Amino acid sequence: MVKQSNSRDILIGLSVGDALGVPIEFLSRADLDADPVTGMKEYGIHNQPAGTWSDDSSMAFCLAESLLNGYNLKDIAQKFIAWFDEAWWTSHGVVFDYGITTSEAIARLKSKTLPPEQAGGINEGDNGNGALMRILPLVLYTMDLPLQERFERVKEVASMTHGHIRSTLCCFFYTELAIGIGYGKSFNEAVKLASQIVSKMIKSNLAWEGEGQHFKRIFDAKIGNLSREEISSSGYVIHILEATLWCLYNSNSYEEAVLLAVNLGDDTDTTAAVVGGLAGLLYGYKSIPNKWMMQLVRKDDILNLADALENRISSSVSPDL
Fold first, then answer.
1. Which CATH number fits domain 6-34+52-314: 3.40.30.10, 1.10.4080.10, 3.40.50.10050, 3.40.50.1820?
2. Which residues are listed for Mg(2+) binding in this entry (predicted)?
3. DSSP secondary structure of 302-321
4. Is 18 annotated as contributing to ligand binding?
């Protein structure tokens, strides 16, 4: 079985990373080279207090809360709508950051003209990182399922906002990587296994044969050897996944990993949230600097949610899937 603290590792790990990135979102790498982030900052781009997390964490928390009642796409959709319309699971009762692709998908979820898993945009230009940033809590419910079922669950949840297969494959690589880490594999071992699984899946489906070229660097164990200049941290889902691997290959602690992520610039909150979730699994949430933990907005609410999810899963031999 996975270690008992996985839910705290994931939820605290991603939200602390998110909060580190919020004040300097969209700043260039050159700006951050001149004034690098070393801890929580206040105000900045979004004029929010230190420790404030964004839509990345809000949507992940909505997913986690929905899973308390089992796996139900309509309920997940309602949680996402409540976040967008009613500021549910926000830091301060205000929605201040979201992507166009996500907002368009939520409008379709509200219209109920399509099943929830068909609400996401399906064009190549819809491959932002809005599904990747929120998908990690799902691994707590899928890690003991057969491989194909894990994939189908990831595809359904990712496609609620991002319906292109590239986004699904990125999310699936990420969740498989997390599962490997959760079961005690080293980061290198987990990356190798996730690469084998997703590469084989792409090759097995003729409709996806063109996707393999986009994952070359992700599947290459040498991505950690690339220079910082060769890594992008834009909002493109492939870029964020590449940046995540690069940061984790080039760090030895949670703190080091997320600071590498935020100081890449551009989509700082999402890069650090995606890195932070995995770094939380790798090093444990107790390895996060205490000062950051104390500054994290709604820390106790997040811990309570994590514990409730952990208890829900551990008390159910056969989760409601």
1. 1.10.4080.10
2. 54-56, 267, 269-270
3. HHHHHHHHHHHHHT-SS---
4. no
